[in-house]
Write the structure tokens for this entry.
Amino acid sequence: MHVLSSMFIVIFLMAVVFIGAGVLKWQYLFGVIIPYISIAVFVLGVIMRVLKWAGAPVPFRIPTTCGQQKSLSWIKQNKLEAPFTFWQVVARMFMEVFFFRSLFRNTKAELHEGKNLVYGSDKWLWAAGLAFHYSFLIIILRHFRFFTEPALFFIEPIQALDGFFQIGVPELYLTSIILIGAVTFLFLRRIMIPQVRYISLPADYFPLYVIFSIAATGICMRHFYKVDIVYVKQMVTGLLTLNPVVPEGIGSVFYIHLFLVCFLLAYFPYSKLMHFAGVFFSPTRNLANNNRAKRHINPWNPKVKTHTYEEWEDEFREVMKDAGMPLEKE
Amino acid sequence: MAEKLIKPEELAQGIKHTTPGGDWRDEKTELKRGCFNYGAQPSSTKYLGLPNVRKWQPMHDDWQLPENWKEIIIKGLADRLKRFRSLQVFMDICVRCGACADKCHFYIGSGDPKNMPVMRAELLRSIYRNDFTAAGKILGSIAGGRKLTVDVIKEWFYYFYQCTECRRCSVFCPYGIDTAEITMIGRELLNLLGLDIDWISTPAANCFRTGNHLGVQPHGFKDSVDFAVDDLEENTGVRVEAPINKKGAEVLFVVPSADYFGDPHYFGFLGYLALFHEIGLDYTLSAFASEGGNFGLFHSNEMMKRLNGKIYAEAKRLGVKWIIGAECGHMWRVLHQYMDTMNGPADFLEVPRSPITGTVFENAKTTRMVHICEFTADLIKHNKIKLDPNRNNHWKTTFHDSCNTSRAMGLLDEPRYILNKVCNHFYEMPENTIREQTFCCGSGSGIGTDENLEMRMRGGLPRANAVKYVHEKHGVNLLSCICAIDKATLPPLLEYWVPGVEVAALHELVGNALVMTGEKDRTTDLRGQEFVNNGKEGSEDV
């Protein structure tokens, strides 16, 4: 059910734009007002969410140690998996954020003949996740050619590399294919693996549909239903310089593409997509494993009722005396 | 008491890693006998001053919740969201990728999809979404929320006490989401309603009162230690001293109480006594701090602090310079990750420095507390003790990393170094089951009771399976470990899944191998078993 319901929502959204921008010609709404609103929602939403996290204290130092601690001088510490210093933590986080280190470890457990457990390496999720995020990043960077005049220095080389195989005219970007492929994989795995299907909510399918649709409309505009790049660039630079213009002659596909991007932006701060910022806040990963070497402060460290030695001795004095144990008070 | 348990083969054959169709939120959880723990005795919860004291059992329909239970939970959750960044972040950022799913021993052994770590967290997240997020308040179920009902509370109880807080899932999570944190907070919330289990509350109450979980009173503690001293003399011919509450000793030595009462822990205790005597360490035990293990960890951070507090208090009173902690998993999680924050600063102690080797334990600079394995490894490295590994020739050993010392501390190589020096036959279990990927004994975090036996055997299946592998391949007959709960719960687990493998403390093997000054001609190990080829006729295999 969740698979379909979220799909219908995305189709509905696309239909709304098609009618709104394409038929009713509310292009100012879809080309100017909504982009501005969504960017504002995105920026403010992300800031508020991050501030909310940052505002909650980390009472205890709870790193998950995935390797040897720093202890005796002749025992080799695993600096990446059990970091002891700030810079070792930075290195650990770098590996997490840029290479998905923890996911790389993934294994699959299987029960064979009903009694033998077998573990195998399983890197598909890691590979697809990495492909998805990096191709997405490159596509976003590529889009800067629409936003800046002259184009920024990194755009040429990225485009050249991305279109390396020069398939078709205009040449097909590899990242377009990789993104579509990765999203499809992530989607299929969600519906085909029973355990993953079981845990999936509409909020898990929904962003996949949206991203797929954004990619599909983007490819569509480049290769099949071409839009006039000059108009688009005029419009986007207008938005960025706060002098919005709505040139005539941009087709509905562009508006659908733009609207879904806006929608994704606005949806971002209120969804699981916030994992992009949250990973930096995860106390099991971003704390050094120097718990016994460096004091950590809990701002709300509670006062608790304890049982003092005096109370304890008062209760057991007689039996201790009989047993000849040392006492504070005879 | 114990629930009837089916045969191992039957249990294993019955494990199906399938999922029901449909939405998990529509299913009602049935509490299955053999898979949950009994409710707390009113006497214990009353002694600890916990809320909603009453006679209560999970199998009853009516859990006698306080009238305003919903309000208590919502308020409790709101409060914890403000106090724990981990909770706030872990509620928000899970993408449900499923990487954690088959990493949980309870899921592997039960096939129950709600034992997938992600699901365990979703049990709480669904309520969080419904009552604490804008989307949930408006869209409810579509946004992944569900209404808080008594059935939800029962489901929480069932599954939060089917998690041993072992953190294996957290190793694999791309965001480091730690189900132990979720479980701990889930249990705190349940405790607000008086939903305590007896195997946590009663040890905690005992510990609070007498100083240890077993409720052993000071004179009983002394008897037990004296008995060990006699035992050791009989075995080695050496009379050791084991001071209790000795003021001005250099080191306070804290053990889990099972070490001086339980079997096979006790043999490890003999090992400590022999070792400390041999190196001439000026130490003392304490009858007041006669427990390092901390059942408060399984209850709430407040309870953990209450029970932990006595260690520093006693170190101060006795005027020791620093502290050594014995083999114990949860104890070391608390000592390593919480103690200094909760009950520090320990500025009345000195930075630990081994009086035998002169090594300064830089990694324990502020807690001033050293793990026995760090201490012993340092001794061996500096050739301060004489060891005869041939005396452990009757054992073919493997090593079980306890969850807490590995994943919440990173103590991995020290015990292996020791093991390699004290025995000749050491075989590692498969690599996906050791070190940071180690599998839990299935009975940690206060759920190691008889009434919960089926779930324990299920949860321990992955551990046992790895032991079985080395048992069959190398003839391993001894699983050594450094955790009191392991020593208590692994023997029945292995007896069920891998008969023929014993469990031992690492320091039992140290005690066997230790050549003591003035010892008699030793013919038996600390258990009283005959040595085999104890070096005199040469080693049995080359």
